[in-house]
Structures are given as structure tokens and as C-alpha cells.
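Weekly structure sync, notes
Attendees: PL (lead), two postdocs, one rotation student
Agenda item 3: pending single-chain targets
PL asked that the sequence for the first pending target be pasted directly into the notes so everyone works from the same version. It is reproduced below exactly as submitted, 871 residues in total.
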Amino acid sequence: MEKENKKILIIDGNALIHRSFHAIPPSLRTKKGVLVNAVFGFTSFLLKALAEFKPEYIVLTLDKAGKTFRHESFSDYKATRTKAPDELYEQIPIIKDLAKAFNIKTYELSGFEADDLIGTICKKLNDKDDLEKIIITGDMDTLQLINKNTKVYTMSRGLSDSVLYDIKKVKERYNLRPNQIIDYKSLRGDPSDNIPGVKGVGEKTAIQLLNDFDNLENLYNNLENKNNLNKIKERIQGLLSEYKDNAYLSQKLATINKDAPIDISLNELKFPNYKNRDVIDLFQELEFNSLIKRLDLIAGYQKQSSFLEEIKTSFKEIENNQLEKVIKNIEINEEIYIETEYVDDKLLVYLYSKNLGYLLIKNSQELKTLKNLLTEKEYKIIGHNLKKIIIDLKKEDINIESLYFDTEIAAYLLQPNNRNFELEKIALNELGLELNKDIKIIEKIEIIKKLKNIYSKKLIENDLDKLFHEIEMPIIKVLADMEINGITFNVEPIQKITKVVKKELNQLENDIHKLAKKDFNINSTKQLKEVLFVDLQIPSKGIKKTKTGFSTAEDQLEKIVDLHPIISKLLKYREYNKLLNTYLSPLPKLINPKTNRIHTHFHQTITATGRLSSSNPNLQNIPNHSQNDLFIRQAFVSKPGWKLLSLDYSQIELRISAFLSQDKKMINAFLKNQDVHQITAAAIYNVTNDNVSPKMRQAAKAVNFGIIYGQGPHGLSQASKISFSEAKEFIEKYFQNYPKIKEMTVNLIKLAKDKNYAETLMGRKRPLPEIHSSMPMLAKSAERMAINTPIQGTAADIIKKAMIEVYQEIKNKDKEIKMLLQVHDELIFEVRKDLIDKYENILKNIMSKVIDIGIPLKIESSCGDNWSQLK
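Predicted structure, written out during the meeting:
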């Protein structure tokens, strides 16, 4: 068996950086706003090459700023090349940091290009027959260096595809030998480097001439001696004679210099010879989380899971009635890590603390003893996704009181733009660990311990520890109890409306088919487009066009609703179809047969603004616009002898806007309990308050809220279904009426640009790296978030704080009142009928005093036997 040669990777840094910069969108920035698209592309391709070739040596070459010896020969060398943007050059120092982390030696030399350094390295190593040289590049200049021991590995399209060129591959591509590539450029020229070549000689002619005459010198010798002229067209003969000087100049410019004054020592280029932690730390700083898991594909990489492999201990099972003795060893404020799982429908509880060690509790007697431990407030309970653990334990009548640290919530606060905070994901991001699906519980706890230490420091460094401990940790218990409580669901109203909706859908389907003059799948976008714009020839002017044709989205169909009766039928069909498939059919299936209630799941870690969300079902999105919507809400009922109570923060986001802007007119309106929408309408329409119509007020309401959502004229016109010019005029008049609001929006954008994040009153931070994007659409979107986040995020923080304080008031009064739902600015409770007035007053008082912003927080209340009766 033939021994495989050792390999050295020689990286053409600048070529790779340029290709990466143009291949990856400029929206790729870190949370601090640093553009890293070229660095990411460079790193990704480097990892690909390292994994593929597993080299024993590696070296990086870079261009040095300034002119080279080629400029002295030809002042216009590269003169036509557009200077790369500063954003590209700003990433080169990061590439150097990357090389340093990987312990890759870097060469750069004034007066020489990276290609010359590559050529010199190849020449100095040519005497080593057992060393295979692989040049990593983004262009083809180095193909001339290929020989039996030298290959070129380059990107063929973007960053995804790559080609390894050897002598055979060059022949396949160009029908030339590698050492003919220089003369090929001498004849054809190279527009990218402004190498002139012979004017009028293209790719095919250059290749044919070299096939016939082998090299440039032989070609001109034959031309001057008038030999073999039958192989050269007369026109080409004239061009070769006229541009001979250019041909030889081009040869000089295209030839890679192999004698740059650099010293090479293979010992300095050994690979891998780096510290894993250095690379992972840099990847984490650059937020290249997706690349961390690719590190283990590199030869010699030591997995970071070694600390898990060192765990030789295991969980000890407690003998009957022994837990009480063990508990006595726990110190006050001791950190207790906890995890739960079900095995054959039996709950297992895993504990770890300094004095407990690793304990597994699974018998019912010890679970009862555990109840006493976890209700003590002197201990610090730590875990990942504690809400799930609380609910598991609650089924065993065990209540956890002293929640201290949830690594899932900490990760969310630090990186709110992320969407996945499962332990496997953040272990990869923070520790470089790619966890197996069969990871042991003891290993999970070890990971949580490490993450807790990392996140504790980061929360303090980012001034998020107060928000974490005072808002996000206490709300976990509140949400867990709300999920356990659920809400009673009466299926009868749903069954009635389902029959009506199905009948309507059948009729609409028939009507649509008649108008289309054929049967087709109404839910098929492709078929619908054909019916509307081909068969019926409905004018498509103003309709957005997608890759597959004109859009049939609801907002686009609204534009042509008056052009054909089929459109209104389609819109109605979609409304009923959504009602049926989103609510009427799924909701009855979600009733818990044991409780006859629906138990939604509340999520803390979904929205970047801090708002809570719910799923399975999403009870924050139950519609409330039409009569059919009310039928759905009628199904959510109170249990006998109780009523539903709604407490809703009235116009809280506008009140926060008034506080942040300190706009006197808006503040006075709230202090005097006036109708802000009416006042805004009067200003926009230039009428008195008494002459404001409901339609005017509705338009003003849209403007009031549109501004705090960062909407411009286009967004407002679409949302309010008014013309662009009317929306533009409304916004102008709005800012004339509330000048401080305009000032606030400008300041919030400026603040976000300065800090690279938006911030709420309670210190929640939302990173906005896109605010510096060179892509206008991304930058504008980030600017809208810069306005919206401090307002909507503060409102989210306020209601969370209210939920915590309300919970403290009612948590031991389950026989009188329960908190069931949170719908953005509204809380819904189930209260004993005879205690409605009592709790309405108590809770309104708590909610109105959660925060003092100098503007009263108004709480609107309503009650009823079902949700449709609440305001």
C-alpha cells in the first residue's frame, strides 16, 4: 500500500476574503453590529478544507497594502479594479485574529502580492517529494503553480462548491498545461487585473495558439521567422505583431514571483497545534455558533466533552426514610440543581448539591419528603426549563418556592434574537459541546452547572441581573400555575358554529367554481393564479409579482376586489377556512379529559421584546372581530359559581410613549383622562373634539399606534387601508401635534445606533446589529424595532411585574381566585361570583401601582360567564 504524502495548505487570504465578502449578504453582523460576512465565509471554507484534507501543515498569505513591483512595470496594473468597500478591509484584522486562534503562521510583505508569497513557499518546498502542497484560493492565478506535488483548491460557485485542480483538471478546463497558464494570460489578458494581453485575442484563440506553438516565445519566433503561418489567421498575425510589447509585458505581470524574501520553516507551520478554547472563544465572540460543531471534523481536534467523560460518579438512590437525614446536611442558601423525567409514567427526580451529592429520588415516600425540602426558601433551586420541572412536581403535589436560576431564561435574556434555547443548542453555543441524544441526566446537570457560572457573570456584565432575578425568574412560577389552571372549555358553541361554517364553505366553493366556470382546488396557489389571471383575465396592475407569478395573498386580492365578483367570494372563503382549520377543528381536540379544560403553554423565550406568547393553542390570538369570533370566545367559560374577570391596561403603550417623549399635550390628555384618539383625530382632521366621527377616531387610533410600531407612510397606508399620500399627511400632522414624539423616535434610533441595541425602562436589551446594515430594508426594519422595543418591551415588563405582584396576593387563595390567561396587556382571572368586586378592586390597585412613570396606569375591567362577554 502506497504511503500517503503529508499535506500543507497554503491559503490565499485576500482572494478568499474577497470571494466571501461578495458571496454572503452584508446583513451578517454580530449583536454588537460588527460586519462579519467575509470572516464567516472565509472560516466556513477553511473548515471545509481542513476537514477534507486533514493537513499536517498550514500557512496563510495576505496582500500588504500599497503598490507592488508590477505597478513599477505597468502603472495601470489593476487600475480598472474597483476599490473594495471599507467594510471588507475592516474584516482583515479579524481574519488575522482567526489565524492566531488556530495558530496559523501568516505571511505578508510590502511590494509583493499574496500570490508571490504562495509561489515562493511552493518553490522553497519543491524539494520535498513527500509533501503535497494544496493552495486554497478564490481565483485562478495560482493554477500556473500546479505540478505533480502542487494542487489548487478553489470555489467554483459562491462558497458552496469547490474544485481541486491538478494537472489533469487544468487540462480538462483549459486544454492547457499549468505552465502554459502564464502565456495564456499574456495573450488573452486579464480584465480583472487590467493585464492588457493582445487586443483582439480571446480565450479560444489564445488556447489554440498555445496548443500549436506551446509557449509565447516559440509563437513569436515562428511569427518573426514566418514559420507555420498557416496555423495563424492573418488578422491574428497582425494583432500579435502590433501588440507584441503588451504580450511580453502581460507575461511579466502574470508571472508569479517565486523569490520573495521570506524564510520558511515547516516546524512553524505544523497543524493542528492550537488550543480548542481559543478557537471556540473567538467563534462565540463572532457568533459563529453554527461553525463550532464543525471543529470536531478537523484532525487532532479534542472534543470539549472531555469534562463529561471525566465524570465517574452516578446518582445514588435513597433508601426508604433516609432522605430526611441527608437533607440535614444542606446548608442555608445552598445551590440545588434539579432535573426530572418520566419513566414508565413514573416521575424520577434528580438532585445535586455540594452536600447532597448526586441523588435519584423515585419512590413515593421520598417524594413526600422532597416536598418539605423544595418548599423551604433557604435553598437556591437551579435548572434548565424550570417551568416544566415545576409542572412535573406539581402533579406529585410538590411545590417549588425558591427558584434561583434557570439557564434557559438566562440564555434568552442575553441573546433574545435567538429562537432556540434548548440545552443542546446553548451547550453547543457556549461550551462547544455537540450533545448526543442519549446524554445522561448527570451530564445534563454538569452542563447546567457550567452554564450557570458563565451566565451569572454575563448577566452582571450586561446589567441584566436585576431584570433576571426580579422579573424573569419570579414569572416562571406564575406561568407554571397558569398552565396548570387552564380554562374551562364548552364545546357546544363550537359545534354549532362549525356546522354553519362548513355549510358556508360548501356554498362558497360552489359559487367560486361557477364564477370560474370550472372546478379547481381553491387552496392551490398555482391553480388559483391560473383561474384569476389567465382564465378570467382579471387585470393584475398593482399586484405584487413572485417567482411563480402574480401574488394571491389576501392584501393583494383586496386591491382587485372590485374587478370581479370571484374575489370577494375568495376572501370570504379564506376567512371561513382559516376559522375552521385554525380554531373550530383543533380546539375541541385540546380539551384535557381529566379537567375538561384547555391548558395552553406560555413561553418566555420566543419574542425579542419580552412579550409572552402561547401555543397549543395560541390563546393570545383568539379572534374578536366578527360574530363568528364571538362564538369561539363563548366556548371559553367559567366554572359553575365563578365568573371570568378581565383586567386590561388601557393604552399602556401610548402612556409609555408619553413618558419617554415627555410630550406635554399627550401627558395632559392622560392626566385629565381624556380620549387620546379623539384628540389626535381632531388635530389630524382639523376639527373640534365634538366633531370627531367614529371613522376619524379609528384612523387616528391607527396613527397613534402606527407611530409607536415604527410605521412609515407605506406601512400605515396598508394597515389602515388609506392612500399613501393620506397616510403621509396624517403622520406629518401627527408630529406637528405631538412634536416631542417625533423627537423621541429620532433619539431612540440614534441611541440604538450608538449602543447597537434597544432598551426598555427595566433594562431589557434587544440587540439590533442590522441597524448599521448597508441594505436599506434591513436598516429600516431595525430602526422600527429601535422605536418599538423600548415601548412594547416596557409594556411587557410592566405586565410581567404586575403578574408577579398579583400572584403574591392570590397564590394561596385557589378556592377564591385563579389567574388563567395573559393576553398581552390583559389578565384574565376566574373568580368566585361573590368575590368579584373585592378582587377587582384589590387587583386594579396592585396593577396601577406597579411602576411610577408620572402618568396614571388605567386599568379597565369587565366580567362575564364566558370570554365573549369580556370587553
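Discussion points:
- The longest strand covers residues 335-343.
- Confidence is low (pLDDT under 50) at residues 299-304.
Action: rotation student to compare against the earlier draft before next sync.
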